[in-house]
User: Which sequence fits this backbone?
């Protein structure tokens, strides 16, 4: 799955991407929101037309990028507010807004907005972020259930969190697996942990 963060796989034309055997591209909700902007993507007819990619697209929800902003982000149960890494402007992503943006993009697989914390982190902080992720997943499902985002919104995947705590991972996997989602992703990796811990 080549990474086309801002609706482009750098240095490659769509035909060249296809020639590699890739059948799906990953793009990113956060980066597309900032640049070129949801209005530009919408005017182009969605990410597929914008980048001339005929195959499926998965859009990350923006949760990892929000995490990577460090002290420039404030996470509450309602949403995440942050400063753009580009110009310092203030932005907000909520579970509902993430679904709305991904519908504008027209991706086939949309990821639920999630909250993750870096490694190492106290178990209580990780548990709080995991439970917030579950609550946000429910809100993503509810937002899509309204029906006004279809047919543009693709299949929703939930994201398992729980840091490096096996019991939290198991709890999160059970919660996401029981939710009304098309698939389950493993989240909260590559957040500072050694590779053997991640494995």
Assistant:
């Amino acid at each position: 799955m080549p990474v086309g963060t801002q609706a482009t796989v750098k240095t490659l034309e769509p035909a060249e991407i296809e020639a590699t055997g890739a059948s799906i591209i990953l793009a990113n909700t956060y980066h597309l929101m900032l640049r070129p902007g949801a209005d530009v993507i919408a005017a182009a007819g969605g990410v597929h037309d914008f980048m001339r990619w005929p195959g499926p697209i998965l859009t990350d929800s923006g949760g990892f990028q929000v995490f990577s902003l460090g002290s420039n982000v404030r996470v509450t149960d309602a949403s995440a507010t942050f400063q753009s890494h580009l110009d310092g402007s203030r932005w907000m992503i909520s579970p509902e807004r993430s679904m709305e943006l991904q519908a504008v993009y027209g991706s086939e697989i949309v990821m639920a907005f999630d909250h993750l914390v870096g490694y190492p982190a106290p178990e209580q902080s990780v548990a709080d972020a995991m439970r917030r992720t579950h609550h946000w997943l429910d809100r993503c499902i509810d937002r899509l259930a309204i029906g006004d985002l279809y047919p543009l919104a693709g299949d929703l995947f939930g994201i398992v969190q729980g840091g490096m705590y096996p019991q939290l991972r198991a709890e999160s996997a059970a919660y996401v697996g029981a939710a009304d989602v098309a698939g389950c992703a493993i989240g909260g990796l590559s957040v500072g942990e050694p590779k053997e811990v991640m494995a």
